[in-house]
Write a structure and sequence with these properties.
The complex is a heterodimer. By secondary structure, chain A is mainly α. Chain A is built from 15 helices and four strands. Chain A folds into two domains: 230 residues, no CATH class; 103 residues, 3-Layer(aba) Sandwich (abc type-2 transporter like fold). The radius of gyration of chain A is 30 Å and the shape is elongated. Chain B is of the alpha/beta class. Chain B has a six-stranded mixed β-sheet with strand order 6-7-8-3-9-10, with helices on both faces. Chain B has a six-stranded mixed β-sheet with strand order 20-21-22-17-23-24, sandwiched between helices. Classes of the chains: A mainly alpha, B alpha/beta. Chains A and B meet through helix 1, helix 2 and helix 9 of A and helix 2, strand 6, helix 3, helix 4 and helix 5 of B.
């Protein structure tokens, strides 16, 4: 076979660019990016994390998980029905928050309550109408199921709200004015409908971007170590910044694509408002994506097998982003030490930006402060990754 | 390449392992240099040091130990192509080509994409690529598979693609770390012709490490390593010439080969003995005519003739000198410890059975196993996975006390057959009887009577040797006095007493293998299944292993073995060669070798016979397709 080759052989030295030239650098970088893109296309799991998981989570949080109290079953005990009790019952019926069921005696109602068929008991005694018309101090008994403390608090508030509103209307009807000297009239800003979905979905975007940036990236780099492809890559003219950029660019694109999908589904399907500017959203998302990628790269430098990398990414990035970012649990109501810890969770800053952008608009004070924090983190993380990424095995 | 005072120490679990120990070495430009040494000799570490992937330790013996880390120790020197690797690792990495042991292929990319990636990384101009790729694809025979995913290639083709990727831009120096490990003989031959073509036509200097000693003959220069130290360097012929006058072929028509080998291995004049052809190949401890008076007195037709020395002989000689003794392990205590009938002591002596006349008349008398009812009967055995037929109708029989081999290239259906025989996988069609039991109906009962040693180390690495033996003996249902007796037997027979408290995961490969074999024999199985028991094991351990297997077969245990080492075929009494799920040939190793004898190949080896069979089969199936 060698004889046949003698004729066709060319001297390749002429055709090879010098290693340091811009053309050679560009060729290497594009080659890596192309390779990574093809691998992503062939790997169903990374596509699933980027595009299927967001939709599933959005649907779950959008429809299923809700922190609101809605359609609460109430046992409405009316011992002696009359026009006034019917009017009050009607007020509860009209509210979208409640589904009252009428009972005549407290015993049956309590049984339903114990069986958790209803969430709360509203008890109008037989002297309700008499006392209301008599001295104007008609007490109503309210018993709430306190197992879910959050729901109990919200439910109690709602019941009081309906009661007060009805009372005010009733007084007006009776021509008694000025009876309640102070009327509290709460007005809720930024999320007037008080839909928890509107604040969960922006937070979810931060979670998903953490997942793609840190988990996916750390695992694909670890995979290269595990399969030995990294060892072969290291002994080529490739430079470390090229290697890092070649990894970052495709996953950056993937993360941003996933973010856009989330925004489209959130705004389009769930009608979540986007009050801030799209440009600011893109810029801050890009910044956060780089932070997440920096975490992923750092993890992959420490953990050189996929299993460990995955575990580390979940524990150090995903779980904190879920719990300590203010995505679900308000940071302000956490104990002080945990609040301090939450400051090192990058998702915290991004969740703040996102919730502001979606629900309030371009509030520059919040956006700039949190972006600055993210910028500092990005520089630290990527700088550290660059510093500890070596073309060495030991 | 120039190395001075190069050491590299690894820390693992509190132990320090000196992988490379004060190496001083020069490797000349041009030609092929082979890096040869047993497992753990430091071959891979040396390659990685040369690529700048590892940095050597500071020189402990020089006075400059206490220098700060920034300052270089002038006694430690590592130059590749004149470039100081320690100062400019990037420049070395830019210049050389390297194929790591776990080849750096992207299995989820196609052959072409892999090539393109490395062309991009090495800056091969787009205009030059078409002709370059065509040339490499022709050289490697991968032209038909350019769009196939690398992960779907056979082991041999993957390695060829790995070499092609390292050659997209012919480097002045190419480092190949065990490119032929786990590759079938046909692909190994192809790989070597690719490497030789590169060295000859493109002036590429090649440094290649290998565990196959017969490959040494392909190299121009040999570097022999052992435990990180240099044992010798020179052209392969110089190694083998030193052994001239010490290599003999010994045969005795009236004595069975295994018995002969056992006798020879105990002889003080003998350094090494392996089975070959109709007799045994012997390396004597000292040059001069080999005289075996004790044996000659016993056997009348003893024939001793000198043979050409090989590189392997020199390797064994040097290693034996380095290790301190080339002594064979103590032979297994035989029938005395086993309580089974039929493994009678009479078989120790050459019995009448050995003189059984073979059909064909002039064929040399070969081991004739004891005439017993077959222990394994296979007929019309088939296995389908969906539409793919992995095993297409096998027929063979194995008799008691036989060593029966299953040979074939990767993907030939050996492992599938093996699993069906062990009852791990049900057959799609056909009959399998093992130890007189139908595997379809009584697989669990049959499994109690067979031992299985998996290809990979299947002991618990974090348990001690003793704990492993205890666990496996209880898993086999041994208890009380009997269990203790069997564990004591295993510890004594496999010389594991001194290390019985050690963590088995930390043991050297040879000990691990002994432990695995001991565990498979605890319940005194009639049949022992060995799936590629010697893959990844160096020549010394392989020898020791086969001596144990031989002794075991002598004591009446039936042994079924798969292997990809062609010289190991000589240890089998009979064997089948498989390809694409069917049997290409069956018979004794000698008979198969005889079939390959051609005028142009008067003295074929078993490997030649194997390659001839596989190539003919491939040609035939290509024509059919």
């Amino acid at each position: 076979m060698s004889d046949a080759h003698q004729g066709t052989r060319t001297d390749y030295r002429d055709t090879v660019d010098t290693v340091g030239s811009i053309a050679a650098r560009r060729m290497r970088l594009l080659g890596l990016i192309r390779k990574e893109t093809q691998q992503i296309k062939r790997d169903p799991s990374s596509l699933a994390i980027a595009f299927v998981l967001p939709v599933v989570l959005l649907l779950l949080f959008g429809y299923g998980v809700s922190l609101d109290a809605r359609n609460l079953g109430i046992a409405f005990v009316v011992e002696q029905p009359d026009a006034d009790t019917a009017s009050l019952l009607g007020a509860f019926r009209r509210s979208p928050l409640f589904e009252p069921r009428e009972y005549r005696d407290i015993q049956t109602a309590e049984r339903a309550f114990s069986a958790r068929q209803v969430f709360a008991l509203v008890w109008l005694r037989s002297d309700f109408a008499r006392r209301l018309r008599g001295h104007g101090d008609a007490p109503i008994g309210v018993i709430v199921n306190g197992v879910d403390a959050n729901q109990a608090r919200i439910g109690t508030g709602y019941i009081q709200g309906v009661w007060r509103k009805w009372l005010a209307g009733w007084l007006r009807e009776q021509g008694i004015d000025g009876a309640p000297p102070v009327v509290l009239e709460p007005r809720i800003w930024f999320n007037a409908a008080v839909r928890s979905r509107d604040f969960l979905v922006p937070g979810l975007i931060a979670i998903l971007m953490t997942l793609i940036g840190a988990l996916l990236t750390s695992m694909v780099v670890a995979r290269e170590w595990e399969r030995g492809t990294m060892e072969a890559l290291l002994v080529t003219p490739i430079r470390i910044p090229e290697l890092m950029l070649g990894k970052l660019a495709p996953y950056f694109a993937l993360g941003m694509g996933s973010m856009l999908l989330c925004v489209a589904v959130g705004v389009g399907l769930f009608g979540i408002p986007l009050r801030g500017s799209v440009l600011v959203l893109l810029a801050t998302s890009a910044l956060f994506m780089l932070v997440a990628l920096g975490m992923g790269l750092l993890i992959s430098i420490i953990a050189k097998n996929q299993y460990v990398a995955g575990q580390m990414a979940i524990i150090t990035t995903f779980l904190p982003a879920f719990i300590l970012s203010g995505f679900i649990f308000a940071i302000g109501s956490m104990p002080a030490p945990i609040q301090w810890i939450s400051h090192i969770v990058p998702a915290r800053y991004f969740v703040a930006i996102l919730q502001t952008l979606f629900l309030a608009g371009d509030v520059w004070r919040i956006i700039l402060f949190n972006s600055a924090a993210l910028l500092v983190m990005m520089v630290l993380l990527l700088g550290r990754a660059r510093g500890s990424f070596r073309k060495r095995l030991d | 390449m120039r190395l001075r005072a190069i050491s590299k120490t690894f820390r693992a679990g509190g132990m320090e392992v000196r992988a490379v120990d004060g190496l001083a070495l020069d490797i000349a430009r041009g030609g092929i240099t082979g890096l040869i040494g047993p497992d753990g000799a430091g071959k891979t570490t040396l390659m990685r040091l040369a690529t700048g992937l590892l940095t050597p330790d500071p020189n402990a013996s020089s006075a400059t130990v206490h220098r700060s880390r920034q300052q270089r120790d002038p006694t430690v020197e590592l130059r590749v192509l004149g470039i100081d690797v320690l100062a400019e690792p990037m420049r070395v990495q830019e210049t050389i080509g390297y194929m790591p042991q776990r080849f750096g292929l992207y299995e989820d990319l196609s052959v072409r994409r892999n090539l393109e990636l490395y062309a991009d990384l090495h800056g091969v101009a787009h205009a030059a690529r078409a002709s370059r790729f065509a040339e490499l694809l022709e050289l490697t025979g991968l032209g038909r598979f350019t769009e196939r995913l690398a992960g779907r290639l056979s082991g041999g083709m993957k390695q060829k693609l790995g070499v092609a990727c390292a050659l997209v831009r012919p480097p002045p120096l190419l480092l190949l770390d065990e490119p032929t490990v786990g590759v079938d003989p046909v692909s190994r031959r192809d790989l070597w012709s690719i490497v030789q073509a590169m060295a000859r036509d493109n002036g590429v200097t090649v440094l290649v490490s290998t565990a196959y000693l017969d490959e040494a003959e392909h190299c121009d220069d040999i570097v022999l390593l052992h435990r990180g130290r240099l044992l010798g360097q020179g052209p392969p012929r110089r190694f083998s010439e030193a052994m001239r006058g010490r290599c003999f072929h010994v045969s005795a028509g009236s004595m069975r080969r295994r018995a002969l080998q056992l006798r020879l291995s105990r002889d003080p004049a003998v350094l090494d003995v392996v089975l070959e052809g109709a007799g045994a190949r012997v390396v004597a401890r000292a040059p001069g005519a080999l005289s075996l008076p004790a044996l000659a007195a016993e056997v009348s037709d003893l024939v001793i003739r000198p043979v050409e020395p090989r590189f392997e002989d020199a390797f064994i000689d040097r290693l034996a000198a380095a290790v301190g003794s080339g002594r064979a392990p103590a032979p297994l205590p035989t029938a005395a410890t086993t309580s089974r009938p039929g493994s009678g002591a009479s078989r120790e002596q050459p019995s009448k059975a050995t003189h059984a006349v073979r059909p064909g008349g002039d064929a040399p008398p070969i081991d004739a196993p004891a005439i017993d009812a077959p222990v394994i009967e296979v007929s019309g055995l088939q296995r389908r996975f969906g539409r793919f037929v992995a095993v297409k109708g096998l027929d063979f029989e194995v008799r008691r006390g036989e060593i029966f081999g299953l040979l074939g290239a990767n993907g030939a259906g050996k492992s599938t057959t093996f699993r069906m025989l062990c009852g791990l996988l049900p057959a799609s069609a056909g009959k399998v009887r093992v130890a007189g039991l139908d595997m379809r109906r009584s697989a669990p009962r049959a499994r109690g009577r067979l031992g299985y040693m998996a290809q990979r180390f299947s002991m618990y690495g974090d348990l001690s040797v003793l704990q492993n033996l205890r666990f496996f003996s209880s898993a086999y249902g041994l208890r009380g006095e009997h269990q203790r007796a069997r564990i004591d037997w295993a510890l004594a027979t496999f010389e594991l007493e001194d290390i019985q408290r050690e963590r088995s995961g930390d043991l050297p490969l040879g000990f691990k293998q002994r432990l695995a074999m001991a565990a498979a024999l605890l319940h005194e199985p009639e049949i022992l299944f060995l799936d590629e028991p010697t893959s990844g094991v160096d020549a010394l351990v392989r020898r020791e292993f086969w001596q144990r297997i031989n002794a075991l077969a002598e004591s009446g245990t039936t042994i079924l073995v798969t292997t990809h080492f062609m010289d190991e075929a000589n240890y089998c009494d009979r064997l089948v060669i498989m390809a694409d799920g069917e049997v290409l040939a069956a018979g004794t190793p000698m008979a198969l070798i005889e079939r390959a004898r051609r005028p142009q190949q008067p003295e074929p080896t078993f490997e030649d016979a194997f390659i001839a069979l596989i190539s003919a089969h491939r040609k035939a199936s290509e024509q059919a397709a």
